[in-house]
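--- STAGE predict ---
source: upstream dedup step, 1 unique chain passed
mode: sequence only
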Amino acid sequence: MRLRRTVGDFWSRAPNACNVAIGYPPPVLRTEERPPVLSFTPMRLGPRPWPPKGPNRAALVNGRSLPLQNVQLDRLLLLHALEFDPSPSRLLDECWRVLDGAGRLLVMVPNRNGLWARAEKTPFGHGRPFSRGQLRKLLADHGFKPVRAQTALFTPPATLGLFLRFGPQIERIGSNWSPGIGGVLVVEAEKNLYAPAGKTSRVKSRTAVVTGKLSPRPSGSISAGSMAERTEGS
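--- STAGE serialize ---
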């Protein structure tokens, strides 16, 4: 639940704000958010409507060519995205392109020093984990200035009732006494308008006709269904 609170505090509340999440964000999104949040899912995960009820606000996207105009977004969240992308640099270049000059980026990735990166039964136990220094450098190399960094999920990645019962206390103690071992690394960054990195035009890519046999399906190290099941407790 702490991840959901962090994400809720991150969104812009301006009436005409444009907030987008890329990766697999439904477990930390609230359907009642105003203005509503759009959920972009990489094609490797396959179609997954969101929210469960009401008009759909989810779409399949190519992380190298987002279906957005330049400098359009106020807030952009990457969750279960950067650590799975085969070319995280190109994804960040696209994020730089679509974010407004005053926009903010929030990245959530497995913490290399945390327990969750070692638990294969959780979505944070797959993909490419990052240390704080690695993520900061990657963001800086692609036109972003980190302004806030923290860790979350100090509760061990287990379903034992004892851990769930004392979860809030464990989170509070961990954040105060051992912030380096949190399972998830959370970094908020602002767009550096004068950085040499960042692309100002969408990357051109060849689009193939998708047939019934070749339609996108969940693939890779972890499926969308598993993410929904495991991340819900966050």
